[in-house]
Design brief:
alpha+beta; 158 residues; ten-stranded antiparallel barrel; 18% helix
Amino acid sequence: MFQKITFLTLLLAVVSCQKKDSAEKDKIKIADWLIGNWENTSPDGVLTENWQKLNDSTFSAASYLIKGKDTIHFESIVLAQKGETLSYLATVKGQNDDKPVAFPSTAASDKQLVFENPKHDYPQKITYTKGVNNTLTAEVTGKLQGKLTTERFIMVKK
């Protein structure tokens, strides 16, 4: 009898952990629409974001702005789910000692992702919105030199 109870308890614990792990990893699945290569061409240059799925809980992207032959801006991005928290981690070369800045998710749906870090200098808010006809709008918002500033980039999937 004792062996049966022990076995059932162990089985229950294993099944419970598997369901919890699965549920935790499901949160990042809402962002699957980010996967792919996105591009915006403007007078400022060509902005590109290339998103890929690394595993069940992590996506990564390289974001860069090129004008002519010059790379104006380069950023490495990791979208990671740890437990119930989905975080956007941005690393900009030459900023913050080349360490990532975390922006925890404040809203997530199948059409929009919002990440905020009110303590960051700029931006404090990053929003990705899924549009029609394979478009994506990336928006960064925050106080820049004392003024509320919003930069919006409409990208097309390539």
